[in-house]
Design goal:
24 strands; mRNA transport; 344 residues; globular; repeat; 4-stranded antiparallel beta sheet; Methylamine Dehydrogenase, Chain H; protein transport; nuclear pore complex; 2 helices; translocation; mainly beta; single chain
Length: 344
């Protein structure tokens, strides 16, 4: 672990690497976004550009897949999302190397989480904020990235919280192209999985249960070579949880009786699920959810979880100021394989 001075004048609230790990974007409560590039010889992060991106704290930043060029999305407490494009000919350090292409301001509350969809789903962006609404935007004309269309809007919370809860809203897309479009959405202490149905709308098809506090982070693992999916969460109750998600085919008429881990409770029914009526005697995927393991090694609040590119190692950070790496044993039990601190 090698610290470097980001130059931000307030708390750094999010960081994001590009696909190749050669560029790093940071955003801060100082309303600025900074992009650093890795010098291969010195292994130092060099500031490429810095600019004031929003009128309030910038809480989330994400890179698009490289197929779509050099794009960044940022979200802020000013209720807006902004799309930025890099000009490779722009002067580094000028504050003008990144050009704002679009501003998306449909949210009625502060935003907390944004993420571009996997590349096979197209140029798509999801957002969640404290108004409790999941919104998905699409660039329907890739030749004109200044135009983004709000294509999906799902009310996850029936009643938004009365006050802002920092980092209590997050989301993560399912990265595999061999499954229907899915994403995990966490609001307060609820973790829900939405899936695109045959009617083209998102349906709440499962719930990740067992959380006893605000969910700070969620990460959907790449599933290279696996027949099931893994989703990890980090929670204010001090635990890292890893869930196993598998599919089965059930009758649509018996769907609500067979999805034992996905039954909609009263709380779920309050989450607007957009479940239109489906034809009878048809089959559709049903998700079965089980918790593989939960760990309280951080001894306090867990703030972030993230998988490696193959989905075999989970990293977590918490109030103990340490990064812990988790890996599955042959018996499918997750163990802490390494603890990283700024001194080690």
């Amino acid at each position: 672990m090698k610290p470097f001075n980001s130059g931000h004048e307030d708390l750094v609230l999010d960081v994001s690497y590009d696909f190749y790990g050669r560029h790093l974007a940071t955003c801060s409560a100082d309303q600025h976004v900074k992009v650093f590039k890795l010098d291969k010889e010195s292994e130092e992060w060099i500031l490429s550009d810095s600019w004031r991106a929003h009128d309030a704290s910038v809480v989330s930043v994400d890179w698009v897949a490289p197929e779509y060029g050099r794009l960044l999305a940022t979200a802020s407490h000013d209720k807006s999302i902004k799309i930025w494009e890099e000009d490779p000919d722009g002067t580094e350090g000028s504050g003008r190397r990144w050009t704002r292409l679009a501003t998306l301001n449909d949210s009625s509350g502060a935003l907390y989480g944004i993420q571009f969809a996997p590349s096979h789903l197209g140029l798509r962006l999801a957002s969640i904020g404290n108004d409790g609404v999941l919104r998905i935007y699409d660039a329907l004309e890739p030749q004109d990235l200044r135009v983004w269309t709000l294509t999906t809007e799902v009310k996850v919370l029936a009643i938004p919280p009365a006050h802002q809860l920092q980092s209590a809203f997050c989301l993560s897309w399912c990265p595999t192209r061999f499954a229907p479009e899915r994403l995990a959405v966490c609001v307060l202490d609820k973790a829900l999985i939405y899936q695109r149905g045959r009617n083209g709308k998102l349906h709440n098809v499962a719930r990740l249960t067992g959380h006893n506090g605000l969910i700070r982070s969620v990460a959907w693992a790449p599933s290279i070579g696996r027949l099931y999916q893994l989703v990890a969460t980090g929670c204010k109750d001090g635990k890292v949880r890893i869930f196993k998600i598998t599919e089965s085919t059930v009758s649509a008429t018996n769907k609500n009786n067979s999805m034992t881990s996905s039954q909609l409770t009263k709380d779920d029914s309050e989450s607007q699920t957009l479940n239109d009526e489906e034809p009878e005697n048809t089959t559709e995927p049903a998700l079965q959810v089980e918790i593989l393991s939960e760990h309280a090694d951080h001894g306090g609040e867990v703030w972030s979880v993230s998988w490696n590119i193959t989905g075999t190692i989970l990293s977590s950070t918490g109030e103990d100021g340490k990064v812990r790496l988790w890996k599955s044993t042959y018996s499918n039990e997750y163990k802490c394989m390494s603890v990283i601190t700024s001194q080690s």
